[in-house]
């Protein structure tokens, strides 16, 4: 998976199994990669970099700190990353700081979960899903498109 370094902005390609064992360090500056299970919070610059460099599916949680349902949804998103992290790159984008990115992707309400492949939006779903709903939604995408 691609791991973004918040210290030096480098993008590290780290095998999922390695990430599973231990939170990786950045190959460039040795800084600790910031991961919550397999979820990374990214600024726009990193989002664009990951899109350009990833062949995997990318699942993005668009959220904001003032949004109650987003707070609720965060742990669910994280939990599902443990199951799909080997196939899907899990990202979180803060719509308060990454305003331009959210509008570029047409995000109107939050939380909004967007599935991307080859820089294109495959599908999106809004609202704070529970664990089973998110799992099922994601699994159904794989049956159809993989
Ligand atoms: Zn670094």
Task: Please give a handful of descriptors for the protein shown.
single chain; 146 residues; alpha/beta; five-stranded mixed beta sheet; two-stranded antiparallel sheet; 5 helices; 7 strands; 37% helix; globular; binds zinc ion
Could you please describe the fold and organization of this structure?
The protein has 146 residues and is an alpha/beta fold. Helices cover 37% and strands 25% of the residues. It contains 5 helices and 7 strands. The protein has helices at residues 16-21, 44-53, 68-84, 99-104, 131-145; strands at 2-4, 11-13, 39-41, 57-63, 88-94, 112-117, 120-126. The strands form 2 sheets. It has a 5-stranded mixed β-sheet, with helices on both faces. Strands 1-2 form a two-stranded antiparallel sheet. Strand 4 (57-63), helix 3 and strand 5 form a beta-alpha-beta unit. The longest helix has 17 residues, at 68-84. It is globular, with a radius of gyration of 14 Å. The two termini are 18 Å apart. The model has no long low-confidence stretch (mean pLDDT 95). The structure holds zinc ion (ZN).
Largest sheet: 5 strands, mixed
Query: Would you tell me the overall average pLDDT?
Result: 95
CA-based gyration radius:
14 Å
- Name the ligand types: zinc ion
Walk across the major sheet and give the strand order. 3-5-4-6-7
Helix content: 25-40%
How much of the polypeptide forms β-strand, as a percent range? 15-25%
């Amino acid at each position: 998976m691609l791991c973004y370094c918040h210290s030096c902005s480098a993008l590290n390609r780290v095998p999922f199994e390695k990430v599973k064992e231990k939170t990786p360090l950045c190959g460039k500056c040795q800084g600790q990669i910031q991961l919550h299970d397999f979820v990374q919070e990214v600024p726009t610059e990193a989002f664009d970099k990951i899109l350009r460099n990833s062949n995997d599916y990318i699942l993005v949680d668009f959220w904001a700190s003032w949004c109650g349902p987003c707070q609720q949804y965060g742990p669910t998103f994280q939990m599902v990353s443990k199951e799909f992290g080997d196939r899907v790159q899990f990202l979180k984008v803060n719509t308060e700081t990454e305003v331009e990115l959210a509008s570029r992707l047409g995000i109107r309400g939050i939380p909004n979960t967007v599935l991307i492949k080859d820089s294109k939006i495959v599908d999106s779903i809004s609202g704070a899903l529970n664990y089973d709903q998110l799992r099922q939604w994601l699994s159904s995408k794989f049956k159809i498109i993989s």
